[in-house]
C-alpha cells in the first residue's frame, strides 16, 4: 500500500477531455475543459429524496 | 510528500423510521458492531490531556456550547462508564474507531503519503458503512444512516480534523501567523459546499457556501474545539517527543467526499507546513481572519476578495497562488507525490479562476452545486423559497450519505463521473492492512499478531502482558522513517512478545523503551 503509484495514470477522468490546445506551457499546466457529466439518472434519484430529510436530521455538537 | 499526517472524521448519525432515537446509545452500539465479541476497553487514556495548551498553560476545563452543556447534564445520569460510552477500538489497520461526543469517529492511522491517506480515509467510510448495516439488522426497527458531512443545518457542527507532525523549533505564534492566510483561503478548493447559513441572521439564508464549517469559527486560536471554535487549535498533544515535535491539529476543514479534494486539501497543507519549516512561507496579514473566512465561503460572486491588515485588498486565489508558487520553487522535483500536489494545486487554482465547473467531479463544492442547480432547474425550485430550500438542503445532506445505494456522491462515483485517486482494491486493503512505513504498522500488526498479549494501547505506546506482568513499548520516538522501519521489521521477525522485546533491546544496546515491569 505504501508504494506510490502515479495518480495521473490511474485516475479515471470525469469525462473524456476535450483538447483545447492547452497542455504544458511556460505558464504551467492548463487543465483541459471537460464536458459536464450527465445528470439524467441522478436526477431520478434526487427526486426520491424526502424533501424534509434535512429537517429531520438533528445532531449534537461535535468537535 | 513525506510528512506524518492523519485525518479524524466525525460522522453524522440518523435512524430513520424511529421516534426518539437515543443518539448516545446509538453511536456507542454502532461502533461495537465492528466487533464479533464483547467490547473490552483497552484504549489507554493516561497519556491524553486535551486541556494542555501549546501557548504554555493548561485550562481547567474545555468548554461546550449551551445545547451540549444541557445534553451532558443528562448524560451524566446514565450510569454508563465513560470507557463504555466511548467504546474506543483500535483496529487492525492501525486506525482508531470510537464514539466521539455522539458521533461515530474514524481516525486514520498515521500516514506518510497521500495515497495511503486517501485509501484509508475511504476505508473508514466502508468500515462504518458495515457497522451501520449491522446495527440496522440488529436493532430490529429503523434504518441507520451515516453522513460524512459537518452540519445538521441547525447550528450543530462536527469535525473533520487534520493532523500534521511538525518541528517544535518553530515558535507556536509563528505557526499561527504563518498558516492563517493559508487555512482561511484553502476552502476555495477544499470546501464541501453547503446550502444556507447558520448562526448568522444577517446573511441570506439562500446562500450556497463553499464550506460547511466556516459558519462555526469565532476565534483565531484556542484549546477548545466545541465552543468558540478556533482557526488554529492549540491543544498540545504531539503523540511524539514533546521536546522535538508539535502536532498541528487543524480543525477548520470540511469532510470531503471527493478523493481529489481530500488529497489536495491535505497535500497543500503539508507543503505549506514544509514552507513554514523552511522559513519560506509567503506572509501576509489578514485584517480580519474570522470575517474573511465567512466572507469567502459566502461570496457567490466567486471573487473571494479579502482585506489585508496593510489596507489593500487581495483575493483567496492570489494568496493560494503565492503559497503554491513558493512551494513550486522550493519543492518541484522532490518526489512524485509532491509533484502531483504541485501540478494539481496549480491546475485547480487556474481552473477556479477560469470556470469552477471544470472541476466537477474533483471538488465537492463545485460538484454539489452543479447537482443542486440541475435539480432546482428540473423541479422548478426557487432558492429563495424556504420549502424549496429545505428540499435542496435535503439533497445537500444526501450527497454525503455514505450508503452507495442512496448517496448522491456515491452514485456519481459508480457512474465514473468523479476522479478517483485510489482503486477499490486499495480501499479494501486499507480496511485491514496498516500503512507499511509508519508506527501504525507496529500498532496494527501487534494487534493482528499478538492480540492476546496486548493489554492496552494508544497512539504512542503499547502495553504487552509478559510473564505475569507487563511491558510498555514507547512509540513516541517512532515517528521518523528509519525508526519506524526498525520497529516494524523487528515485529515482523518476532515469534513472540518476549522475542520482540528482546530484538528491540538488542538493537538499541539497552533495554527496550519501556515503562518497565508493573
The structural class of chain A is mainly alpha
Low-pLDDT windows of residues of chain A: 1-34
Mean pLDDT value of chain B: 94
Number of helices of chain B: 17
Question: In angstroms, what separates the terminal alpha carbons of chain B?
Answer: 40 Å
- Unreliable parts of chain B: 511-518
Sheet with the most strands: spatial strand order of chain B = 5-6-7-1-9-14
Secondary structure tally: strands of chain A: 0
How would you sum up this structure, described in words?
The complex is a heterodimer of chains A (63) and B (518). With 63 residues, chain A is an all-alpha fold. Chain A has three helices and no strands. Chain A starts with 6 loop residues before the first helix and ends in a 7-residue tail after the last helix. Chain B is α+β, with helices and mostly antiparallel strands and 518 residues long. The radius of gyration of chain B is 23 Å and the shape is globular. The C terminus of chain B is likely disordered. In chain B, β6 and β7 form a beta hairpin. In chain B, α4 crosses α7. In chain B, the strands form seven sheets. Chain B has a six-stranded antiparallel sheet. At the A-B interface, α1, α2 and α3 of A face β2, α2, α4, α10 and α11 of B.
Keywords:
heterodimer; A: mainly alpha; 25% helix; disordered N terminus; B: 518 residues; 16% strand; disordered C terminus
Amino acid at each position: 500500500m505504501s508504494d506510490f503509484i502515479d495518480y495521473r495514470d490511474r485516475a479515471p477522468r470525469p469525462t473524456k477531455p476535450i483538447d483545447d490546445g492547452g497542455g504544458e506551457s511556460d505558464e504551467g499546466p492548463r487543465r483541459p475543459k471537460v464536458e459536464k457529466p450527465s445528470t439524467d439518472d441522478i436526477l431520478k434519484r434526487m427526486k426520491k429524496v424526502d424533501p424534509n430529510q434535512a429537517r429531520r436530521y438533528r445532531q449534537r455538537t461535535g468537535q | 510528500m513525506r510528512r506524518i499526517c492523519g485525518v479524524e472524521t466525525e460522522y453524522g448519525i440518523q435512524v430513520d423510521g424511529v421516534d426518539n432515537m437515543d443518539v448516545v446509545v446509538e453511536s456507542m452500539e454502532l461502533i461495537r458492531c465492528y466487533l464479533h465479541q464483547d467490547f473490552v476497553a483497552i484504549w489507554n487514556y493516561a497519556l491524553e490531556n486535551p486541556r494542555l495548551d501549546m501557548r504554555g498553560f493548561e485550562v481547567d476545563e474545555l468548554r461546550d456550547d449551551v445545547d451540549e452543556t444541557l445534553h451532558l447534564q443528562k448524560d451524566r445520569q446514565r450510569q454508563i462508564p465513560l470507557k463504555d460510552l466511548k467504546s474506543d477500538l483500535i483496529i487492525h489497520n492501525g486506525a482508531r474507531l470510537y464514539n466521539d461526543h455522539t458521533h461515530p469517529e474514524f481516525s486514520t492511522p498515521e500516514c506518510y503519503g497521500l495515497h495511503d491517506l486517501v485509501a484509508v480515509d475511504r476505508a473508514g467510510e466502508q468500515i462504518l458503512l458495515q457497522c451501520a448495516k449491522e446495527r440496522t439488522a440488529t436493532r430490529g426497527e429503523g434504518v441507520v444512516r451515516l453522513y460524512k458531512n459537518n452540519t445538521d443545518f441547525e447550528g450543530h457542527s462536527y469535525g473533520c480534523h487534520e493532523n500534521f507532525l511538525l518541528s517544535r523549533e518553530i515558535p507556536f505564534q509563528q505557526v499561527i501567523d504563518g498558516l492563517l492566510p493559508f487555512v482561511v483561503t484553502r476552502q476555495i478548493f477544499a470546501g464541501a459546499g453547503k446550502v444556507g447559513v447558520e448562526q448568522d441572521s444577517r446573511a441570506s439564508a439562500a446562500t450556497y457556501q463553499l464550506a460547511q464549517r466556516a459558519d462555526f469559527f469565532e476565534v483565531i486560536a484556542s484549546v477548545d474545539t466545541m465552543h468558540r471554535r478556533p482557526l488554529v487549535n492549540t491543544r498540545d498533544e504531539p503523540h511524539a517527543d514533546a521536546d522535538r515535535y508539535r502536532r498541528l491539529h487543524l480543525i477548520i476543514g470540511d469532510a470531503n467526499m471527493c478523493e481529489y479534494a481530500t488529497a489536495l486539501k491535505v497535500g497543500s497543507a503539508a507543503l505549506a507546513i514544509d514552507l513554514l519549516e523552511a522559513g519560506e512561507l509567503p506572509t501576509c496579514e489578514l485584517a480580519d481572519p474570522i470575517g474573511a473566512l465567512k466572507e469567502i465561503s459566502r461570496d457567490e460572486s466567486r471573487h473571494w476578495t479579502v482585506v489585508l491588515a496593510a489596507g489593500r485588498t487581495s483575493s483567496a486565489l492570489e494568496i493560494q497562488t503565492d503559497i503554491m508558487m513558493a512551494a513550486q520553487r522550493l519543492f518541484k522535483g522532490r518526489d512524485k507525490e509532491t509533484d502531483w500536489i504541485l501540478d494539481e494545486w496549480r491546475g485547480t487554482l487556474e481552473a477556479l479562476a477560469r470556470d469552477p465547473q471544470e472541476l466537477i467531479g474533483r471538488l465537492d463544492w463545485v460538484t454539489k452545486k452543479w447537482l443542486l442547480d440541475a435539480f432546482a432547474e428540473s423541479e422548478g425550485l426557487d432558492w429563495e423559497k424556504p420549502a424549496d430550500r429545505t428540499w435542496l438542503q435535503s439533497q445537500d445532506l444526501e450527497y454525503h450519505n455514505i450508503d452507495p445505494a442512496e448517496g448522491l456522491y456515491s452514485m456519481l462515483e459508480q457512474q465514473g463521473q468523479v476522479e478517483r485517486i485510489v482503486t477499490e482494491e486499495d480501499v479494501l486493503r486499507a480496511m485491514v492492512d496498516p500503512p507499511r512505513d509508519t508506527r501504525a504498522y507496529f500498532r496494527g500488526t501487534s494487534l493482528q499478531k499478538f492480540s492476546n498479549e496486548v493489554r492496552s494501547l494508544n497512539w504512542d505506546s503499547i502495553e504487552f502482558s509478559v510473564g505475569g506482568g507487563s511491558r510498555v513499548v514507547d512509540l513516541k520516538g517512532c515517528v521518523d522513517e528509519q525508526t519506524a522501519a526498525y520497529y516494524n521489521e523487528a515485529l515482523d521477525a518476532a515469534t513472540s512478545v518476549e522475542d520482540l522485546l528482546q530484538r528491540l533491546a538488542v538493537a538499541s544496546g539497552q533495554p527496550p523503551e519501556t515503562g518497565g515491569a508493573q
